[in-house]
Amino acid sequence: MSTQPYIEYNQLTFELSKIVTTRYSTSFTRGIKTLHKRFHYPIYAIYGFVRLADEIVDTFHDHDKLKLFEDFKIQTYAALDQRISTNPILHAFQLVVNEYKIPLELTDAFLYSMELDLTKKSYDDEFYKKYIYGSAEVVGLMCLKVFCEGDENKYQKLIKPARSLGAAFQKVNFLRDLKSDYQERGRVYFPGIDFDNFTESGKKAIEQDIQKDFDAALPGIMGLPKDVRPGVYTAYIYYKQLLKKIEHLPSSKIKESRIRVPDLQKIFLLLRTYAKFGIW
Question: What does the chain look like in DSSP terms, one character per residue?
Fold first, then answer.
């Protein structure tokens, strides 16, 4: 029996993961395009998996989200174990996890954090750190496994800065989405923060914490393999720009609207990356 249809199915699932990525995040897609081509489909597959889980917990309001997510978890573990899935997004994800030997603990932690979104509305310091690790840091570690291509020494060396970068991204997202998280989903992730009394001092403390994460992440970015360094750096400067915009706004404005970086400015940041790394 010919194996060609199976090869075609693999290709199809990667292409569908790419569609999910481009549909949901133009910024992330631009960053992926600065990676070497061989990394495109693996990173699309990771993003597609993450996006699908996030969609269940954040948007399927007219359905039993706990049941849907439990089914999703069962399908995920079955795909990883059986090395195949009729869910195209999960099939692409399992191909990447198995090829790059991404530790199961990373998937476990991610699913745990996503499930927290279905039950928790506020976080103490312990659960805040657990949530950030599972929702963001492990996604960076999954990508790092791909980037290191089996070089375990390099992976171990870059774990800490990769986690710092993931944490910085997630905390910026929390600040940017403070209004929608609270008003639409009833969530406040920052420990001890009262949305109705979000003070300048509280905002400043969060911003300083994020800056520490960015500072810890930068040496790791520069230590990445050269074929991926520009892409990760693009994401880094984009989120740094988001933080800068947030810093220039009073706490009352953060509560009123979602902060964005205009598309033209995103293109300018991308061109800065091209110039810095000689990509022309």
Answer: --SHHHHHHHHHHHHHHHHHHHHH-HHHHHHHHTS-GGGHHHHHHHHHHHHHHHHHHHH-TTS-HHHHHHHHHHHHHHHHHHT--SSHHHHHHHHHHHHTT--HHHHHHHHHHHHHHHH-SB--HHHHHHHHIIIIIHHHHHHHHHHHTT-HHHHHHHHHHHHHHHHHHHHHHHHHTHHHHHHHH--B-STT--GGG--HHHHHHHHHHHHHHHHHHHHHHHTS-TTTHHHHHHHHHHHHHHHHHHHTS-HHHHTTS-----HHHHHHHHHHHHHHHT--
